Amino acid sequence: MKLKKILLSIGILGLLGVNAADSNSAKHYGFSAIFGFTSETLIHKNFTSLNDIERVSYATLLGSTPGLIKELTDDKFSNEDMAFNVAGALTGALLSNYLNNNTSIFVTHNEEEKATKVNLAYNF
Question: Could you read off the pLDDT tens digit of each residue along the chain, which spans 124 residues?
Fold first, then answer.
């Protein structure tokens, strides 16, 4: 758990460092973070037999794949852009894993009162 928090902190600091970089690097980092987050969420819900390290690893691989495809179709492959793709996918996967392990959302509907209640629970 401590390792995940350290890696997540490094990833967020990396995002702050992207502000100093060009906007292209920020785009690679941001989009890959979204893909990493989404991949880990899908893996977390559908492959419950995997442990956290495996989920984050597979999500990072899947999350950085669109960036790899983009780099392969560019005129020139950029190692820097690919590094931002992997860093973003890892950050998104770690954040998703942390949230999926520690939060729950419950939705209940009361037909008589015609009301829907959404509860968010955080595990400390």
Answer: 566 666 666 666 665 555 555 678 888 888 999 999 999 999 999 999 999 999 999 999 999 999 999 999 999 999 988 999 999 999 999 999 988 998 888 889 888 888 999 988 888 7
Pick from 5, 21, 43, 26: nearest CA to 87? 26
CB atoms within 10 A of CB 12: 13
Long-range contacts: 103-107, Cβ < 8 Å, 24+?
none
DSSP state of 33: H
Q: Tell me the C-alpha distance between 23 and 12, whole Å.
A: 17
d(CA 50, CA 43): 9
